[in-house]
Amino acid sequence: MIGITGQIGAGKSFVGHKLRERHVRVIDADLAVHQLYRDNSELRTAISREFGADSLTETGVNRKFFADLIFRDAGARLRLEQLVYPVLTAYLLRENPAFVEAALFENVPEMVEHLSEIWIVMASPEVRLKRLTCNRNMNEDDARRRMELQQPKDSKECWRRLFPGKKLHFLDNSGDEAALMKNLETLLP
Length: 189
Prior knowledge:
Elements: E1 2-6, H1 12-21, E2 26-28, H2 29-39, H3 41-51, E3 56-57, E4 60-61, H4 63-72, H5 74-95, E5 99-101, H6 109-112, E6 117-122, H7 125-134, H8 140-149, H9 156-162, E7 168-172, H10 177-187
């Protein structure tokens, strides 16, 4: 299993999309978590036990409830992650896709252990800002705030410190699609 990650707006989802076009199985960890919130009864029971019945909806978790809670209680996010990440890791190991796409692998060391390598999609802050405002229709202030919320990961050395001992590949996605595809071709069998 290979991980795909990168900062917001770098293009990790685009890389996942391009792999899927080649009929390669890629699981988006964020989407998988939302499916688990909705469908995994053990996870739902654990969340309800920890946070109360108001923390859930029929289709998953109550996002407003958690947004308000995490704003008031910094430890709430960590408690939720401690419930979710083991379930997500077990799900991914069962499914065994060729690739897993996730923004925050560093928060899930038990999953990282199972990755044979990690592909890191990188783009300059200017390119990422433009993508967020143009492609995702974010206003510039919101886009900048979201970029600032992530740890600064603009250097390869930072990524190496996050994943010591892991085989890393860096995909520069600051240019056009053709340049990215040329980069991608060198990694695909």
